[in-house]
Fold dTDP-4-dehydrorhamnose reductase.
Amino acid sequence: MVKILITGANGQVGRSLVEQAPATVSVSGSDREKSGDGKIVQLLACSSSELDITQADRVKAVMEQFQPDLIINAAAYTAVDKAETESDQAYAVNRDGVLNLAQEAKQRQIPVLHISTDYVFDGEKDTPYKETDSTSPESVYGASKLAGEQALQQSGALYLILRTSWVFGVHGGNFVKTMLRLAGERDTLSIVADQQGAPTSAASIAETLWRFARQYFGTGNLESGVYHFSNQPETTWHGFATEIFTQAYGMGLLEKQPVVQGITTAEYPTPAKRPLNSRLDCTKIQRTLSIEIPQWQDELSRVLAKLQNES
Ligand SMILES: NC(=O)c1ccc[n+]([C@@H]2O[C@H](COP(=O)([O-])OP(=O)(O)OC[C@H]3O[C@@H](n4cnc5c(N)ncnc54)[C@H](OP(=O)(O)O)[C@@H]3O)[C@@H](O)[C@H]2O)c1
């Protein structure tokens, strides 16, 4: 039997991880199910109220009680703009919380699969970022996420850091849901058109993390390292918004399509600075897992279809 602990299980990626997992149980539960490769999997998926990763004692207690063989950390402080004035909270979760998990993992010689962000880069490069490019975050959120990466790397635990970008999905708040709401309220929208990146579905991130987990349990090996993963192809927030409206209108989710005006980052000031170039080079993960990178337009269709079914 293998035991897997998921933290941040109520977030966008956390919920997708749970949806795609073989079984879900509460802290005291004991449901079990066979995974695809015949192993029995016991999953403990904790929301922030069930396991606050900033509480070292609580992390230790859950680890002692559950004795996981692998941790997937989907918990994070993700309020990018608020982090500029809530730096302590951002670091408490994104650095110290990760360290709490990493120290327990090191002691138990188990891996941590962790998620990080394109915001560890300053966006000044004019080609997609590789894992080997130097980091230089320009926001508190980005700096706190980088500090978490470093805490995990220096802990001595086996680890995998998946840097991703522009996450969207069925659960939680995200750009897709904001655009659908605004389309119902306004005829014209001004959307930033000079930041380049790639929207990435929470479902495809979860699928990729589960691939690594299966590989680890199948081979007993995990090559610690940083991997870039985003959906393809690259676009801008303006391009993403336009596609959301085209698809949503086409399937009857919207009664009308708003006019989408492109504006510059300078015309839409935010407390936290965003990288102009958020593009991630995904060659390494493609080779390692032998996967095709999903197209975000296809992922968007699936998300919109689910939202339509739920409405
Ligand atoms: N969203 C993006 O566009 C984006 C882009 C690049 C990378 N990422 C990274 O992808 C990962 C997943 O992001 P997401 O979009 O799924 O974020 P999300 O929807 O905000 O989910 C984060 C989850 O972490 C939980 N959490 C916060 N503080 C916690 C704590 N102290 N202990 C335990 N859980 C805690 C939150 O719980 P509450 O709901 O109770 O607060 C929330 O359920 C994160 O590492 C994030 O940095 C996200």
Confidence is low (pLDDT under 50) at residues 23-36. The domain at 2-174+199-232+279-300 is CATH 3.40.50.720 (Rossmann fold). The longest strand covers residues 40-46. The radius of gyration is 19 Å.
